[in-house]
Amino acid sequence: MLSLRHCTVAIVLALGAVLPAGAQTTAVPAPATGESSLTIFIRGVEVGRMQSTVSHPDTSWVISSTGRFGDIVLNRLEIKYDADWQPTSLRAEATQVQKRLVLLTSFGLTTAVNEISQDGATTGKTDQISARTIVLPNNFYAGYEALAVRLAGSAPGTELPLYVPPQGEVKAVVNEIGQESIQTPAGVTALRTYTLTVHNVGADVEAIVAVDARNRFARLEIKAAALNVIRSDLAGVAARRQTTRNPTDTDVTIPTTGFNIAGTLTVPKLEGRLRHPVVVLVGGAGPVDRDETVADIPIFGHLAGALADRGFMVLRYDKRGVGQSGGRVETVTLQDYADDAIAIVKWLARRDDVDPRRIAVLGYGEGGAAALLAAAREKKIASVVLVGAPGSSGADLVMEQQRHQLDLMKTSDAERQAKIDLQQRVQAAVLSGKGWEGIPEDVRKQADTPWFKSVLEYDPAKIMPRVSQPVLILQGDLDTQVPPHHAEQLAELARQRKKATPVEAVHLPGVNHLLVKATTGETDEYPTLADHEIAPDVATTIADWLRR
Asked: Can you tell me whether residue 141 is helix, strand or coil?
């Protein structure tokens, strides 16, 4: 095969040769024929595109493809299967930096005979394979169309053979079958997701493959390689994965100055009430969507459903520049996020089914800062809920978080102090615009943004005196991202206000920053959490306080 010069691509090659064996004898459902386009991402950066076509001439199945991946140009790929999805032949023609590769493979029932031509030299290799093996040539992802077909007829525990020509065959086992939906401007596409363990030589690898209702390949995710391959109609900026959907969810579009915000309104099932109290959910740091999905836990999706069950209308939304919301993220600040929350509150106050006197804003994590900034300016906000929100300045919180991570890393005192000194220099340079000399360029590129500057400048001690609304502070006691003492700092700031309005701080034992039950609360525990539902006390505490 072609040698690949990029380390990221090399990782994917190693994982590409990662797939299964074991014959499946159940009837295989037929896929829809036609073309599709695949977009390839590594660490969130697009690195290639490929066209994929499934055709059904006579009684055979043919998968063909062209495209590009990194510096590899795929000129032709053709994989043929018989009516029972037994492979019969493979032809791949590709170039990499003017080097030409031709791979020809002919299949018997249990053999694969390969002829590899590269740079004028031809070699051969014969492999033993399983009957009805699935052919997955490295980095040429149209081959996953056949895997999608075979997965569509599988069940948990099914073992599948995957042949990576000309390297060999490995086995994959279906561990779990789930469902997900991708929402695009054209509508919602329902997908079945298959979590596989691939018994690769040297180490097992987990892969997730998504298949649509037409039994066509839709998505591949290999987290260990930061690899995502997504069908292009599901990969646009306006596409969003629906990790959860409540029975009374309705998608809405909210106009703001210059762009629209896309959100989901969850309505209580109560009959006879004309106007509902409302909770607006303001998301935390990063490019999170309306469901605030972290570690596969849709925090806001669950919270919206739980609050709706308790009689509240709930609005969650994609942050500006994320998902289906417009706007740009390059110049965004915390104040801009507060402006968006205010625009949503005003939009809700005009609705006939909303009680305009009972609109609460709930800020989660960094969203707590945006919620406080919004409440300081907008009196249509009746009350404020701060969940896992910072009680110190942003600059102090960032340093606190860094020190905690260094403690976990068990670095030497000298290395620890060097990292702390660098972080302090970076923050000083961001705030002043001076002192970037000697700071690595990649560090500056990441830190020198309007958003990060606004985070560092944020100080609840300066904002809270201007907030006249009642305040609830909710804190998981195993939160290691925003430690529990921040709740007490916020409560003390709220109680010092001149106007005596209700303030309550509630601690939730055993709950982490994701609002689920945990053991340590550390971020490295997130992928292995047993619970994927927020703790029931979260919604109960919020609803009871808002009613009071």
From this structure: helix
Q: Which residue has the tokens 């909210």?
A: 254
Return all residues near 503 (Cβ < 8 A) that are at least 6 apart.
470, 471, 473, 491, 494, 495
Three-class SS state of 494: helix
Q: What is the helix (H) or strand (E) element at residue 99, kind and residue range?
A: strand 99-107
What string of DSSP letters covers 248-309?
A: TEEEEEEEETTEEEEEEEE----SS-SSEEEEEEE--SSS--TT-EETTEEHHHHHHHHHHH
146 and 135 in contact (C-beta within 8 Å)?
yes
Give the C-alpha separation, 476 to 521, whole Å: 9
Q: What is the DSSP letter of 171?
A: E
The DSSP symbol for 491 reads H
Q: Give tens-digit pLDDT for 234-275.
A: 987 677 777 788 999 999 999 998 999 999 999 998 766 689
Cα–Cα distances (Å) from 17 to 74, 199, 229, 431, 456, in that order, read: 18, 10, 16, 48, 45
- Nearest Cα neighbor of 289 from 244, 250, 248, 256 is 244
Confidence of residue 92 (pLDDT cuts 50, 70, 90): very high
If you average pLDDT over residues 218-246, what whole number do you get?
86
In the predicted model, is pLDDT for residue 8 greater than 80?
no
Query: Could you read off the pLDDT of 164-178 as tens digits, one per residue?
Result: 999 999 999 999 999
Mean per-residue pLDDT of the chain = 91
Cis, peptide link before residue 166, omega less than 30° from 0: yes
Q: Angle at Cα 403 formed by Cα 402 and Cα 404, nearest 5°? A: 90
pLDDT by residue (tens digit) across 508-531?
Answer: 999 999 999 999 999 999 989 988
Q: Is the pLDDT of residue 548 over 50?
A: yes
Q: Which of 74, 207, 60 is nearest to 140 (CA)?
A: 74
- Give the residue among 278, 283, 212 at the shortest CA–CA distance from 546: 278
How is 310-340 classified by DSSP, letter by letter?
Answer: TT-EEEEEPPTTSTT--S-STT--HHHHHHH
Buried b (16+ CB within 10 A) or exposed e, 151-172: bbebeeebbbbbbbbbbbbbbb
Determine the residue type at 100: R
CA pair distance 152, 209, nearest whole angstrom: 11
Residue carrying the six token digits 């700031």: 493
Pair type for strands 121-128 and 111-118: antiparallel
The predicted model scores a pTM of: 0.74
Q: How far apart are CA 55 and CA 62, in angstroms?
A: 5
Beta-bridged to residue 252, according to DSSP, are 263
Which burial class, exposed, middle or buried, applies to 427 when counting CB atoms under 10 A from its CB (0-12, 13-18, 19+)?
buried
CA separation for the pair 504, 507 (Å, rounded) = 10
Tell me, what's the pLDDT at 26? 54
Alpha carbon distances (Å) from 201 to 198, 223, 300? 9, 18, 40
Residue 107's beta-bridge partner residues? 112
